[in-house]
C-alpha cells in the first residue's frame, strides 16, 4: 500500500472513536463487576481483587498476542480489537447473569476462589517472564506462538471450576435454603415451629438492628405510627443499607471515599502515563521491563488488596480503608525516592508504587458497596471511577506535562534528562498522597462502627434488599 492510500483520522473522528471505545470498556467492566458482586456478596473483597487483578493483566495479554500472533502489526491489532473482542463478548455475555447467592459460608466456594487466585498469580508471573524473555532474547516465531498458547491455557484455567461443579455437583448445596426464603430466616436449630414475620423490612435494615440503638430509638415510634396510618414517612437509609445515588451523593463518607481514591489513583496513574519518560530521564534506554514490572506489581496490589482486606475485615472488623491509608503512606515515601533520584532506587520504587496503586482499586469497590449497598451500586461505582481520569487530567496532563516540557526547554531539547525533569511533580504527588492519608484516616474512624456491625459475627450479614435486587 502506498502512503497516499493510507487513511488518516482527523481529530474529531479520533475523539469519537475513543469515546465509543472507552464507553464500551466501562459497560463491560460494570456489567461483570456489579453482577459478580451481587452473586457473591459475602466475599466482596475477594471478588473485587480477582476481577480487578485480571483487568490489570489484560494489557500484558494483548501485548503477547500483538507480539506473536499479530506479528507486531498495528493494522492487525486494530482489526483484532474491532472484530475479535466483540465476537468474544457476544459469545460469553450469556454466562454473566444474576444467580442466587449463598445464604452462608461455603467451604467449596472459598476453595474455588483460592484456585482462581492461584491461577491468576501463575498467569501474572508467566507474563512477566515472557516479557523479559521477549525483550532480552528475541525468540523465534515458533517459540513466541508457544508462549501464547501456554498463556491461553493459563487464561482458561478458571473454567475448571464450572466443569468440576457440573461433573461432580456438591450435595451440600441442595440442603441450603435460598437467600430470602422463609427457612433462611429461621434462627437456631431447634426452632422449627418459628414462623416467618408477616411483614419484613424492605431495605437492608434487616441486619442493622443492633447498630446505633439510640439513633434507631425514634424509628420504632415512627414505624408504629406508620402502621397505624397516622403518618406516612419514608426513613432515609443509614450507612450499610441500600442508597440511591442522590442519597449517597450528599453523604460525607461518599466524598471522603472519592477524594481518597482520586488522590491515590490520580497520583499513581501519573507515573504510569509517564513511566517511559521517567525511565529515560533516569538513564534507562529500554523501559519495557520497567513497564512490565509496574504492570505485574499493579496486578499483585489489586489481587492481594482484596484478599488481605477480606481477611482482616472478617477477623478484626478492620475497615478496608485502613489499607488505603497504609498504601498511600508508602506512596509518599516512593514519590520522595523518585524525587531524590537516588541511584538504584528506580525499579524498587516502581514496584512499590505499582502495588500501592493496585490496592486503591480493590479497596474502593467493596468499600463503596458495603457503605451504600448493592442495589444502586453500578451508578455509585462508576462515579467513583471518575477519580481516575480526573486525576490523570490534573496530575499527568497539566502538572507533569507542563513541568517536563519546561525542564526540557531549559535543556534546549524535546527530551528531558536528569532528576529535575519530574522532581516538582513527584513532590506535589507526595503532598497529594499525604493529604489522601489524612482523609483516609478520618474516613476509617467514621466508618469503623459500620464494619463492626456488618462483620460482628466474623462474616458479612447479608442485607435482604441487596440479595434480592
UniProtKB/TrEMBL annotation:
Pfam families: NFD4_C, Nodulin-like. Residues 8-163 form the Nodulin-like domain. Residues 251-450 form the NFD4 C-terminal domain. Residues 179-200 are annotated as: Disordered. GO terms for cellular component: membrane. It is a multi-pass membrane protein. Gene3D superfamilies: MFS general substrate transporter like domains. Its main location: membrane. The chain crosses the membrane at residues 6-34, 46-65, 77-99, 111-130, 142-163, 254-272, 321-340, 346-367, 379-404, 424-445. Residues 181-200 have a biased composition (Polar residues). InterPro entries: MFS_trans_sf (IPR036259), NFD4_C (IPR056555), Nodulin-like (IPR010658). It is found in: Membrane. This is Protein nuclear fusion defective 4. It comes from Vitis vinifera. The lineage of its organism: Eukaryota, Viridiplantae, Streptophyta, Embryophyta, Tracheophyta.
Amino acid at each position: 500500500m502506498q502512503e497516499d492510500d493510507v487513511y488518516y483520522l482527523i481529530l474529531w473522528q479520533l475523539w469519537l472513536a475513543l469515546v465509543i471505545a472507552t464507553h464500551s470498556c466501562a459497560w463491560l467492566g460494570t456489567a461483570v463487576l456489579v453482577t459478580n458482586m451481587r452473586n457473591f456478596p459475602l466475599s466482596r473483597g475477594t471478588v473485587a481483587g480477582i476481577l480487578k487483578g485480571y483487568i490489570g493483566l489484560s494489557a500484558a495479554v494483548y501485548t503477547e498476542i500483538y507480539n506473536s500472533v499479530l506479528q507486531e502489526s498495528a493494522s492487525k491489532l486494530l482489526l483484532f480489537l474491532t472484530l475479535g473482542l466483540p465476537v468474544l463478548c457476544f459469545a460469553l455475555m450469556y454466562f454473566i447473569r444474576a444467580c442466587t447467592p449463598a445464604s452462608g459460608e461455603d467451604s467449596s466456594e472459598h476453595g474455588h476462589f483460592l484456585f482462581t487466585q492461584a491461577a491468576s498469580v501463575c498467569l501474572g508471573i508467566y507474563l512477566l517472564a515472557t516479557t523479559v524473555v521477549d525483550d532480552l532474547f528475541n525468540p523465534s516465531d515458533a517459540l513466541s506462538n508457544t508462549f501464547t498458547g501456554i498463556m491461553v491455557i493459563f487464561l482458561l484455567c478458571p473454567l475448571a471450576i464450572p466443569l468440576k461443579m457440573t461433573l461432580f455437583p456438591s450435595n451440600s448445596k441442595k440442603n441450603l435454603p435460598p437467600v430470602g426464603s422463609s427457612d433462611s430466616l429461621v434462627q437456631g436449630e431447634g426452632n422449627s415451629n418459628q414462623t416467618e414475620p408477616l411483614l419484613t423490612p424492605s431495605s437492608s435494615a434487616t441486619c442493622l438492628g443492633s447498630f446505633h440503638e439510640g439513633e434507631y430509638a425514634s424509628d420504632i415510634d415512627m414505624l408504629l405510627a406508620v402502621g397505624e396510618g397516622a403518618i406516612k414517612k419514608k426513613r432515609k437509609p443509614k450507612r450499610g443499607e441500600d442508597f440511591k445515588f442522590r442519597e449517597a451523593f450528599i453523604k460525607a463518607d461518599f466524598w471522603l471515599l472519592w477524594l481518597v481514591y482520586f488522590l491515590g489513583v490520580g497520583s499513581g496513574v501519573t507515573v504510569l502515563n509517564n513511566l517511559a519518560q521517567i525511565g529515560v530521564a533516569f538513564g534507562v534506554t529500554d523501559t519495557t521491563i520497567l513497564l512490565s514490572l509496574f504492570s505485574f506489581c499493579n496486578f499483585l496490589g489489586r489481587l492481594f488488596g482484596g484478599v488481605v482486606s477480606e481477611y482482616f475485615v472478617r477477623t478484626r472488623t478492620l475497615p478496608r480503608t485502613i489499607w488505603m491509608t497504609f498504601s498511600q503512606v508508602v506512596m509518599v515515601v516512593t514519590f520522595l525516592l523518585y524525587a531524590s533520584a537516588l541511584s538504584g532506587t528506580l525499579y524498587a520504587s516502581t514496584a512499590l508504587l505499582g502495588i500501592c496503586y493496585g490496592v486503591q482499586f480493590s479497596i474502593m469497590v467493596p468499600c463503596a458497596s458495603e457503605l451504600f449497598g448493592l442495589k444502586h451500586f453500578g451508578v455509585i461505582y462508576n462515579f467513583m471511577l471518575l477519580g481516575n481520569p480526573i486525576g490523570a487530567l490534573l496530575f499527568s496532563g497539566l502538572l507533569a506535562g507542563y513541568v517536563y516540557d519546561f525542564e526540557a526547554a531549559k535543556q534546549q531539547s524535546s527530551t528531558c534528562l536528569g532528576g529535575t525533569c519530574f522532581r516538582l511533580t513527584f513532590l506535589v504527588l507526595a503532598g497529594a498522597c499525604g493529604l489522601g492519608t489524612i482523609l483516609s484516616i478520618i474516613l476509617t474512624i467514621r466508618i469503623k462502627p459500620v464494619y463492626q456491625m456488618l462483620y460482628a459475627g466474623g462474616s458479612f450479614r447479608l442485607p435482604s434488599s441487596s440479595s434480592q435486587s
